[in-house]
Amino acid sequence: MATSNAPTLKDQSLFIQKSYINGQWVDAKSGKTFAVTNPATGKDIGTMPEMNKDDTQAAIDAAAKAFPSFRKTTGRERARMLRKWYQLMMDNADDLGRLITWENGKPLTDAKGEVTYAANFFEWFSEEAPRNYGDTIPASVVGNRVFTTKEPVGVVGLITPWNFPAAMITRKIGPALAAGCTVVAKSPGETPFTAAALAELAHRAGIPAGVVNIITALDNTAEVGEALTSSETVRKVSFTGSTRVGKILMKQSSDTLKKLSFELGGNAPFIVFDDADLDTAVNGAIASKFRGSGQTCVCANRIYVQEGIYDKFATAFTEKVQNFKVGAGDQDGVTHGPLIHDRAVSKAKAHVDDAVKQGGKVLFGGQEMPNLGPNFFQPTVIRDMKSDMQLAHEETFGPVAGLFPFKSEADVVAMANDTEVGLAGYFFSKDIQRCYRVAEAIQTGMVGINTGLISDPATPFGGVKHSGFGREGSKYGIDEYQIIKTVTMGGMAGELQGS
């Protein structure tokens, strides 16, 4: 498939350049649009409505109107809707993958893998929707009977990032709909076409008008976010993005005391102990560090390798990286695509330059690749990293792997925890006692042991410290969109009536 300015799909009706409000495809009230570019070429592939607070309010109103009837649907009815939406995603996986590659840049194989992962959230929460159990609680007051029910929180606002254009939106919409909520989702300005295609499939799945609303904006993103956080009608906001923006949204939400769940920045430590299996550790590091060209929140950012295995690991790891093929995601054989924009390239380059200035040695890569396009950066390996380098304290969000040597278990755990964020952490060891010790000592919401891939719809996803709060996916994910109501019935004790 050759790169062109606009995607060619099996079902061309899935390429939609409008927003979706109240079951209708609409433009911005102002008539303004913004361009969406292919990061591999820098060329425009289409436009989307530049919506503002008035458009956002229209979507909120539609969701509010739909909520009273949708909340009364049974869990089984909502399960069928989600299951049908899941199946439509799988039936159109090739087209959805192409849309992701065009607007995000990731290789087509990775994009199709994301579609499956994204669809699985609908499948998972279709199975959770009918199993929304409350409790019967023994009362301490004679004659009282107590039980709880779980109810949808109401209209929810969702704000998602560009690095997983399908999965980040399904991971939020799935549990929201399973709980009986209605949704206003702000799609990423860099990657809105995937979200629009998902909205079209929601329409085909028979999800009622107003239940799912997708609004688009680039320059007006902050205005849209404030409209969602300041609205009394929106009772919950879920956001995935930077810690800086998350703190802004949290402040904006304080006046309306919303329920919040935030998945924010990471700075994941990846630890390889002397007793680790070398091949397993190298493969795990490759999978964790370079997935999406390093543009995931759970990417290994600081790779700590114990001194006894450091040189062997550095050599084997670098050999793997040298075999990558960088290029446009729709080209055959490409393993790693471009970064999302030139700012990402500049940050990767700055981290490399800072490391080299302070004594780091580049084993491979370290440069821009302008011959391929405006947003390409070489997959990079740097050894002899130190704790005062920028990469040790900042999330690169790019294909730069810094290898830090360490001496002892206590030393590396201290270094791993020396950060204000705590989303994911990884370590490799054959010692089962060490596995428990270190897993319990690492200050992150998620830990991978002898694996570099931890994301799964069945497992809770989220962080601690400045990486946010709340959990997505798993049986816990639906709780973020519900409230627990306690019902106490008095005067229930007494003698049986009659003879």
TrEMBL record:
Q: Give the EC class as a word.
A: oxidoreductase
Question: EC number(s) in its UniProt entry?
Answer: 1.2.1.16
Part of which pathway?
Amino-acid degradation; 4-aminobutanoate degradation
KW Oxidoreductase (keyword) present: yes
Q: Which InterPro entries match?
A: Ald_DH/histidinol_DH, Ald_DH_C, Ald_DH_CS_GLU, Ald_DH_N, Aldehyde_DH_dom, Aldehyde_DH_Superfamily, Succ_semiAld_DH
Catalyses: succinate semialdehyde + NADP(+) + H2O = succinate + NADPH + 2 H(+); succinate semialdehyde + NAD(+) + H2O = succinate + NADH + 2 H(+)
Gene Ontology molecular function, alphabetical = succinate-semialdehyde dehydrogenase (NAD+) activity
Q: Is Oxidoreductase there in the keyword field? A: yes
Q: Tell me the keywords, alphabetical order.
A: Oxidoreductase
Query: Catalytic positions?
Result: 263
GO biological process per UniProt: gamma-aminobutyric acid catabolic process
Q: Can you list the GO cellular component terms from the UniProt entry?
A: cytoplasm
Entry superkingdom = Eukaryota
Query: Which SUPFAM superfamilies does the annotation name?
Result: ALDH-like
Q: Where would I find the Aldehyde dehydrogenase domain in this sequence?
A: 25-487
Its family remark reads: Belongs to the aldehyde dehydrogenase family.
Q: What is this protein called?
A: Succinate-semialdehyde dehydrogenase
Q: Which organism is it from?
A: Saxophila tyrrhenica
